[in-house]
């Protein structure tokens, strides 16, 4: 071990890498508990829990590399993306957990949150009003009833690890619970729409593409303020603002 690497750090949580061990420090101890519980329930491979002493969770490093990064082209093969889709289907077919996760917010809750965030984006001149209005209209397709599934809830491409064409594990289960399956599919392909067909092929069932597109818009609209307030730039090429522009 030559150094401690800060993987991510903001006011809510930080993740450090020490050799082959990742240390997650979370201000919300309940969120860490949710992550440990979800990893114990899911049929999808996850990092080994080495120990858990609130507020710290120690995880073993996964083999392989992330299937992609938001804002960067993915070098993973179409077969690897299809394998990710198959792993997601395995998760969604698993018995439901007891709690609702991030992807399980009610339509009324999502609508209220979306209205508030769109108002903030326009009032603070963060995004052009016409972009917000058109994106909000696209997002409405996600605001419909769905059949609950076991969802990851924050299935960013950086959380899916592959080695060659095989999925070696999925990280960061703190938002897991009952939710909309299409939210996971939209999240893993956010900013990587060129791989949506591969993911769906691996998923193995018909998917409403309008709802996927709606979740891209909705997740991006809801994420901009949080990213800004936590020191990230949503206007980085390929990230949330570019996603919204690409939907027009």
From TrEMBL:
Specify the domain of life of the species encoding this protein. Answer: Bacteria
Question: Which parts of the sequence belong to the Aminoglycoside phosphotransferase domain?
Answer: 43-204
Alphabetized UniProt keyword annotations: Transferase
Q: Does the keyword Transferase apply?
A: yes
The molecular function terms in GO held by this entry are: transferase activity
Q: Which InterPro entries match?
A: AGP_Transferase (IPR051678), Aminoglycoside_PTrfase (IPR002575), Kinase-like_dom_sf (IPR011009)
> What Gene3D superfamilies would the database entry show?
3.90.1200.10
- The entry's protein name is Aminoglycoside phosphotransferase
Q: Which species expresses this protein natively?
A: Streptomyces alboflavus
